[in-house]
Amino acid sequence: GDSVTQMEGPVTLSEEAFLTINCTYTATGYPSLFWYVQYPGEGLQLLLKATKADDKGSNKGFEATYRKETTSFHLEKGSVQVSDSAVYFCALSDRSQGNLIFGKGTKLSVKP
Amino acid sequence: DAGVTQSPTHLIKTRGQQVTLRCSPKSGHDTVSWYQQALGQGPQFIFQYYEEEERQRGNFPDRFSGHQFPNYSSELNVNALLLGDSALYLCASSLSLLQETQYFGPGTRLLVL
Hints:
The structure holds two protein chains of two kinds.
Chain A: E1 3-6, E2 11-14, E3 19-21, E4 23-26, E5 33-38, E6 44-50, E7 56-59, E8 62-65, E9 75-77, E10 86-94, E11 99-102, E12 106-111
Parallel strand pairs in A: 2-12
Antiparallel strand pairs in A: 1-4, 3-9, 5-6, 5-10, 7-8, 8-9, 10-11, 10-12
Chain B: E1 5-7, E2 10-13, E3 19-24, E4 31-37, E5 44-50, E6 53-57, E7 64-68, E8 74-78, E9 87-94, E10 103-104, E11 108-112
Parallel strand pairs in B: 2-11
Antiparallel strand pairs in B: 1-3, 3-8, 4-5, 4-9, 5-6, 7-8, 9-10, 9-11
């Protein structure tokens, strides 16, 4: 079945460092891809999405490009802030089922 | 514009009991999905409701059941609670059954003792 694999965390960075969180997927069709962020004690917030190959999703300085050839959707940010500390989840939509399939999440800690 | 709301925020139950969790979707949304998020894991899909019917279901036992009301709000019921049911339960809504983007509520944290 469809699945999402994220890089293991935790990831610890200094403020203003460059961030990359790797995400690869397995899918039989052509899913839409998402990044969600979960701050401590809260639900999930949609960060960005891409619906087809070569689409770039972006929001709040974060970017991810839908790469069909490498089945990847890596999350990047040029300069992280302490307030970016959270758990980041990569997800794909199973269009045949109507649900989201999530990776296990990557915890990011940004130190001042 | 109110987002997805869930109640209660926290709940403590004992094994064997039954629990009901509630969700109100984002304004204008008619499709509701429920997910279970165990500690340190990604959310797992339980089921999805549209037009007051269960449309899709994940790999969860029949102890998990739900309902959707005419105003699109939804309930998740879990019977015969097990210790392993302790988790954060997330409700998500989308604009329609065909819309893939889902917006999540803050969740209900259930602890089963």
